[in-house]
Amino acid sequence: MPPLSPLFSLPLNVGSLSLSSPLVLAPMAGLGHVAYREVLGRFGGFGFMVSEMCNARAVPQESRHHSPVFRWRDEEAARLVCQIFGGEPAVMADAARRIEAEGLLGVDINMGCSVSAICKKGYGAALLKDPERAVAIVRAVRQAVRCPVMVKFRSGWENSADLAVDLARRFEDAGADLLTFHPRIAPDRRSRPPRREHIRAVVDAVTIPVLGNGNAFSAEDCMTMMRETGCAGVSIGRMAIARPWIFAQLALGFSPSEDIYLRTALEMIDSIWKHFAPERAIKMYKKYLPYLAANFVYGHSLWPELARGATREEMTDNAMRVLGRMPQVAKTPNAFLFTS
Predict the structure, then answer these.
(1) What is the per-residue pLDDT across 185-242, written as a single tens digit (0 to 9) for each?
(2) Which of 108, 130, 191, 222 is most buried (CB neighbours < 10 A)?
């Protein structure tokens, strides 16, 4: 079937690569893990996926078979970008070398995370307060690898696009192949709508592709963002957890069946328990459940029903009982549950 918009069939050119879709999975801590990506991969429709945030200091020594975050399936490697966080150029470069050696698609440098535990170490969005260090990190990573180098960043710490525009130009000069831009300031954890005019300003400042990020919940949201800002594509986060088929729906014309929520929940259970030990698996599945429940009109009351218990068998029984009765689906998922 055709895409919902011709915009969603445009190629995404990253360095020397041409990817089939301008829609990509955003990095999300505790949510974008290997088990979730296995479910997402069955639907398809994305240009690439991004891993959870990986500590650059740990990456060179990590075992991909034991790390909860630096882990992937062989089948996804060519479409998986690994996101790293850190504050020292040499450390970030060493991590990038390991990522490239493993055959992953590329490296994404996190300069957008505003969680205090990350920022107080000078990582994530805190790097936007130190532009020289931020640019030095991009340059060091670029010099260390040949694979695509990407940067995820936001407007900064003050409500202006000036810093983002300046950094975008300097990141391009330092060798970045793609920028993912979230147009909110770091202290704003989604309390205000993203400022799309900031995306437009960043797009106009560089020649490399820019992905827009923030409140992309529907086909209309993605089309509006691309048309208003000129961005090359959209990085979709929370909505992709709630509805892993969103990329296939937008880019491939996939039409979800009435039982898609039940089938996806059961697939998620199978995949999480396949990749992780039971004590970790139950925590990961319960972290996913608010996003699943957000799809329904009465999601707040369904969420506790879905989460009751502490075993895989109980989670399966819950999904069969609650979702098997086909609860009413909301037109747009409840974003309040996304932050629960």
Answers:
(1) 876 666 677 889 999 999 999 999 999 998 899 999 999 999 999 999 999 999 999 9
(2) 108
Q: How far is CA 186 from the centre of its chain?
A: 17
- Considering only CA atoms, which of 5, 11, 2, 74 is closest in space to residue 47? 11
Active site positions, annotated: 113
As a residue count, the chain comes to 340
Buried b (16+ CB within 10 A) or exposed e, 254-267: bebeeebbbebbbe
All domains in the chain, ordered by first residue: 6-252 (3.20.20.70), 260-338 (no CATH)
pLDDT tens string 293-326 = 999 999 999 999 999 999 999 999 999 999 999 9
Q: Give every CB contact of residue 105 below 8 A, 6+ residues apart in sequence.
A: 17, 48, 77, 78, 79, 80, 81, 147, 148
Tokens of 237: 């986060």
